[in-house]
Amino acid sequence: MSIVTIRNVEFFNNPARFLDRYHFRVTFECIAPLKDDLEWKLIYVSSPGNEELDQELDDCLVGPVPVGVNSFEFEGLAPDPAKIPTEDVLGVAALILTGSYRDQEFVRVGYYQNTEYDNEDMKTTPPEKIKFDRLVRDISTKLRVTRFQIKWDVVPQSQGHAAAGAAASAAVPSANDLDGDDANHST
């Protein structure tokens, strides 16, 4: 059983210029008070076959985390163009948000990101040298959620207490309801 469940990830700037920062809000529910902070990371994957090229765009610690529905805003840097192989710039890449507790990853939310030029002429006939200032990115609303069992070192409060906290909060869809194929969440 997971003590923390992601409820929603809302991107504020999608679509956006490729070189713009990522800006989004993560909403999650916690069913027991945590002794330590949660760590969140944003990772850009340009070449799925080569982990060495993955770029950690930013990370943050969130805590203390009270019982109930919580949210925070996260801003991450754009990927460093110098670290992306030329053949992997245009087209589909992955954007991954991870959540960890005490160095144990408990959730991974993956998105596809499409990168293309901002006008039809450049899409049809791309320039020889990539012009990053003319690229736009679009993050797909279809996402993939992977959960991992970890040792939380806390005991969940009674179901009645957790339900009361959730009832007092805004209704948001649960990440548990997502199967990655027909998810319809904010972008």
What distinguishing features does this structure have?
elongated; 187 residues; 2 helices; mainly beta
Q: What report would you give on this structure?
A:
There is one protein chain. A hairpin with a 2-residue loop joins strand 7 and strand 8. The radius of gyration is 18 Å and the shape is elongated. It is built from 2 helices and 9 strands. The protein is 7% helix and 44% strand. The C terminus is likely disordered. The strands form 2 sheets. It has a 6-stranded antiparallel β-sheet with strand order 2-9-8-7-4-5. A 3-stranded antiparallel β-sheet has the order 1-3-6. The longest helix has 9 residues. The chain has 187 residues and is mainly β.
Structural class: mainly beta
Strand order of the biggest β-sheet: 2-9-8-7-4-5
Question: What is the rounded Rg?
Answer: 18 Å
Compute the separation of the termini in Å: 27 Å
Strand portion, in percent? 35-45%
Q: What profile does the largest beta sheet have?
A: 6 strands, antiparallel
Low-confidence stretches: 159-187
- Helix and strand pattern: EEEEEEEEHEH
Helix content: under 10%
List the total number of helices.
2
What's the count of strands? 9
How much is the average pLDDT? 87
Shape: elongated
What's the layout of helices and strands?
Layout: E1 4-11, E2 16-17, E3 22-30, E4 38-45, E5 55-62, E6 68-76, E7 91-101, E8 104-117, H1 120-124, E9 135-147, H2 159-167
Antiparallel strand pairs: 1-3, 2-9, 3-6, 4-5, 4-7, 7-8, 8-9
